[in-house]
């Protein structure tokens, strides 16, 4: 008998990733100006690399750690949560994960049954959408208020709650919009979660990158949210550790064993060498984080100045956080098909961006630009766009 072995509906229902597709197309070309990647281009600081090398030399990295992560690392994470997130935790509430992504996936798996609904803002980080779909859940998109810096529409969130809603999932500071949800909005969101017995799943990957006096607020700092929030964090952005695949989540100690049941089949434990690197990152002075932040702020300012010179082509909200922004395309050809617009921009102007449709229905008509690149790259991309659109 011939034929193809069957692939699951849950995987088939996931479309191609626009981000990876743009990367693939960019690789086929020479001398592309990249504004499409959300990964830090700076290298991991030396003291962090040294911490990993020492652990390897000392023979500490050859086996699994506890599934929840090295105890010493979890202790440092507890201190960090208290210091920087105002979250009172203990080590039984920490699960060290393979980046924020695996933590988020494990959280969704632990909370969502087939057919359950998860409220996500639109636009939002595309991987969140896929994580809900792969758990056979249904993402319910609630539009952000674009003209108000892509803020949360709390009333619309409440209206979207049904008897099938299990969770609200979002990132702040946001990929792709760069918005930072206000403490006030997040407190109201928390109230909705409590009123309807929902789980809030947060992605705080960009927690340290806020600008213009805006502050990052962690919902888990509200004691009444105990048992109703799973907060996911990462070393990827804070310490430029993309490839180390190391992050962690915080949740009530009664939830952690359940989430761990989802973590083990995918990971067993986070890479041990990376756990030692993460320990090195947390134990050292935090100057590198402030330096990255300064760089992103200056890159953000440059990108906004350059966008101002293209006001006939793009309208934009100034990002208050992360290192991403989502300008609206004013040109007719980009209003309804951001994918075609971005592909054309790549082919004809040599500038790689990401189509907004990747980030949910109201992402259409936009394109995502990343400013975690050297300033020369921003100038090169915008010089090309100015010539191309003139
Ligand atoms: C919002 C958000 N969450 C998570 C990640 C990935 O995090 P990690 O590398 O820790 O899995 C990214 C990377 O772009 C991101 O933008």
Radius of gyration: 21 Å
- What is the chain-wise order of helices and strands? HHEHHEHEHEHEHEEEHHHEEEHHEEEH
The averaged pLDDT comes out at 96
Low-pLDDT segments, ≥5 res: none
**Which small compounds were modeled alongside the protein?**
pyridoxal-5'-phosphate
Ends distance? 60 Å
Work out the oligomeric state of the chains in this entry.
single chain
Structural class of the helix and strand makeup?
alpha/beta
Overall, the morphology is globular
Helix content: 40-55%
Strand tally, please?
A: 14
Strand fraction band? 5-15%
**Number of separate helices:** 14
* Strand order in the largest sheet: 2-8-7-6-5-3-4
Profile the largest sheet: 7 strands, mixed
């Amino acid at each position: 008998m011939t034929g193809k072995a069957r692939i699951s509906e849950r995987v088939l229902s996931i479309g191609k990733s626009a981000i990876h597709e743009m990367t693939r197309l960019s690789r086929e070309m020479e001398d592309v100006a990249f504004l499409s990647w959300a990964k830090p281009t700076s290298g991991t600081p030396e003291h962090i690399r040294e911490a990993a090398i020492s652990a390897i030399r000392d023979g500490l990295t050859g086996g699994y750690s506890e599934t929840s992560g090295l105890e010493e690392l979890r202790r440092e994470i507890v201190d960090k949560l208290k210091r920087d997130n105002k979250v009172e935790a203990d080590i039984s509430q920490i699960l060290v994960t393979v980046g924020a992504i695996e933590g988020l996936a494990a959280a969704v798996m632990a909370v969502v049954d087939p057919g359950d609904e998860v409220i996500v803002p639109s636009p939002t980080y595309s991987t969140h959408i896929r994580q809900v779909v792969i758990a056979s859940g249904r993402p319910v998109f609630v539009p952000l208020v674009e003209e108000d810096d892509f803020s949360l529409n709390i009333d619309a969130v409440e209206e979207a709650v049904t008897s099938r809603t299990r969770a609200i999932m979002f990132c702040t500071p946001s990929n792709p919009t760069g918005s930072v949800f206000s403490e006030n909005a997040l407190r109201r969101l928390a109230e909705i979660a409590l009123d309807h017995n929902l789980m809030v799943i947060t992605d705080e990957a960009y927690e340290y990158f806020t600008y213009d006096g805006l502050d990052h607020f962690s919902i888990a700092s509200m004691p009444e949210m105990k048992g109703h929030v799973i907060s996911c964090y990462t070393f990827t952005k804070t310490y430029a550790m993309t490839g180390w695949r190391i992050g962690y989540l915080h949740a009530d100690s009664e939830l952690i064993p359940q989430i761990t049941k989802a973590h083990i089949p995918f990971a067993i434990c986070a890479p041990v060498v990376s756990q030692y690197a993460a320990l090195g990152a947390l134990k050292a002075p935090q100057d590198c984080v402030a330096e990255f932040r300064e760089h992103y702020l200056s890159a953000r300012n440059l990108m906004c100045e350059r966008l101002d010179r293209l006001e006939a082509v793009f309208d934009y909200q100034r990002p208050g956080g992360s290192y991403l922004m989502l300008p609206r395309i004013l040109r007719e050809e980009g209003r309804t098909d951001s994918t075609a617009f971005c592909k054309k921009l790549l082919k004809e102007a040599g500038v790689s961006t990401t189509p907004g449709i990747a980030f949910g229905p109201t992402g259409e008509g936009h394109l995502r630009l990343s400013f975690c690149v050297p300033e020369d790259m921003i100038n090169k991309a915008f010089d090309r766009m100015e010539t191309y659109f003139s």
